[in-house]
Amino acid sequence: MVDIGLFTQIVINGLLLGGIYVTIGVGFSLAFGVLEVVDFAVGEYVMVGAFMGAVLAPILGSEGVFVIPIVLVVFFGVGALIQPLIHHVTTGDRPHPLLMGLVFTFGLATFLRGSVLTIFGPNNQDVPSSLLTGGVTIPGIGTFPVVRTVTAVFGVTGLLVFMYYLYRTRGGMAIRAIAEDRTNARLMGININRYQSIAYGAYAALTGSAGVFIGMTFTANPGMGLQYTAFAFFMVVLAGMGYLPGVILAGIVLGLTQSFTAVYISGNLVLLVLFAIIYVVLLVSPAGILGKGEWAT
Amino acid sequence: MTGPVPSLDRLPGEPRYWYAGLAVLLVAWPLLFGDFWARIGLGALMWIGLAQSWNMIGGYAGYLDFGHGAYFGIGAFATGIAMAQLGYPFVVGFVLAAVVAATVAYLVAVPTLRLTGAYFAIATWALAESIKQAALVTGITGGTFGLSLPRSSETFVGVPVPFPISEAFFYYAMLVLCLATMALTYYLFERHEFGYRVKALRDDQDAAESLGIDTTRVKRQVYVLSCVVAALFGAVHAWYIVYVHPNDVLAPIITDRMVIMALLGGLGTLTGPVVGGLLVFLLERLSSVFLGSTTFYLPLIGILIMITVLFAPSGIIGILRGEVDRADVRENVKELGEKFDLL
């Protein structure tokens, strides 16, 4: 028999997890739309974010939340400076520019993982937080763990701000124009270097700060990146590359899948199930299950 | 890009003396330097061969296979299961590795090769990860315990052989396998018509199709061939290391290394994977011996990849051949500088 209390608790946990995954997925999908690069480093940004939390939180009075603004600023800056490099390898006179972009981010991922592994060793590191502990129990529904709730709220807020920028401001319009057609956007007088850097920087900042929250919810580990790269791929593959509304749905599906698989089947099988779904969806419907993604090579 | 083995031709003196000297050195290596250097040598040979196997599909055919390491693991597990679970000698495991890898590769190739570019890369990457996760939870692979292989004189062909199964034996096994891979690559991709078909489909699939090349068939052939080669190295590796575990032989780092070695040396060239393979392998060994860190080579490799892609996309071989010279790099730096015009 299905225990109703447990069931609703799993749904709550899954939805709250989905909130933060959506943040990662939307940025990742946008980076793909603007730069046309599939970023293998996405999970490593999460990992580096979590480690920044682990390192800086003890300095800032054992409070992971205070690290968030620093991570946002630092990741935005670093992302804005990485973007020209990616833009350079995916354009210009070289064989297979898109594949070169893929390989470049692959190198970036190896560099980030290797550096953190070399500096901090392979062990788990805690991201301490004294504000976000315990949980709020609502009778008849279930317990909302504070850290996961704040994480989800942050994820959704970040997403809304980002969406507002993207759809309601001139800068956002420029970014969407670049995603539509880079050459034409440039002909319309858009500084593509600047807006691509803003888009990639915003993506890096959102992903890195999501990493701090993930570090507070679980723990920080140099090997954790792979899992979140897989999650990001899962979301965009399911949603269709570059289709933002689909990513939101896919992130929620991901959070629910993860919490249900972990409870009812086995935690070891979560990744197997996800990878199998990625593989099958790519083969059957490469434009996503909603069929609205763009087809890129 | 179609020249014969180039680099040795540039050395002073008659090239064949250099080849002869190299051949003597390779054969005499374990006898001259002992077990420690035989181990280093066989590792280098294995990685050169694996990088070359990736180069077949990734370099010559232009399909970035980010799950190629899975076939190394499949080869290792086929041998491991044959020897540890079923009690067969190594040769049976070796043949089984080839058969299993070819079957799996063909079944994977039929649907997966319809994808291109990034989609192909993600799909193969996801597939390799799911194979690893599956190996961790199934019984026949030993699950999380792994498998231990027997290594004695009878386990080679079933009856005792008159030579010891030592480091030197495995060195020669890897040498033969590596040279065979090189010869096969040279013949098929640089000399045979097959190589021209493969390069044609890499450069322009539609054009190749219009010239009457059955691209689907050629792609499948390259994919299966490259996977079987990787599996054979996996088979020898499993017996050499006498222990196979999903976290070792199916680790994503195996694919990473193959990609990096081929890319750094030069994609789609015969000698690229040799140069890249040697360089990356030695970098890894030396950093663990001299710096006492077994992970320090990872960031180094990451930086090397990024620099290669940014400034010398044809790899070290491209620089040696003079395809990329100082003016190209300067031009590259200038163009890159313009892209930093952010404000």
UniProtKB/TrEMBL annotation, chain A:
Coarse class of the protein's main subcellular location: membrane
Entry's transmembrane regions: 6-35, 42-60, 66-86, 98-121, 141-167, 198-218, 230-257, 269-290
Annotated membrane topology: Multi-pass membrane protein
Keywords (A to Z) from UniProt: Amino-acid transport, Cell membrane, Membrane, Transmembrane, Transmembrane helix, Transport
GO-annotated cellular components: plasma membrane
GO biological process, alphabetically ordered: amino acid transport
Pfam family, one: BPD_transp_2
Subcellular location as annotated: Cell membrane
Keyword hit for Heme: no
Similarity section: Belongs to the binding-protein-dependent transport system permease family. LivHM subfamily.
Stated name of the protein: Branched-chain amino acid ABC transporter permease
Upper lineage: Archaea, Methanobacteriati, Methanobacteriota, Stenosarchaea group, Halobacteria
TrEMBL record, chain B:
Compartments it resides in: Cell membrane
InterPro entries (alphabetical): ABC_transp_permease (IPR001851), LivM-like (IPR043428)
Gene Ontology CC: one annotated term: plasma membrane
Species: Halorubrum glutamatedens
Location (main, coarse): membrane
Keywords: Cell membrane, Membrane, Transmembrane, Transmembrane helix
Superkingdom of origin: Archaea
Protein's UniProt name: Branched-chain amino acid ABC transporter permease
Membrane topology, as annotated: Multi-pass membrane protein
TM annotation in the entry: 17-50, 169-189, 222-242, 262-283, 295-320
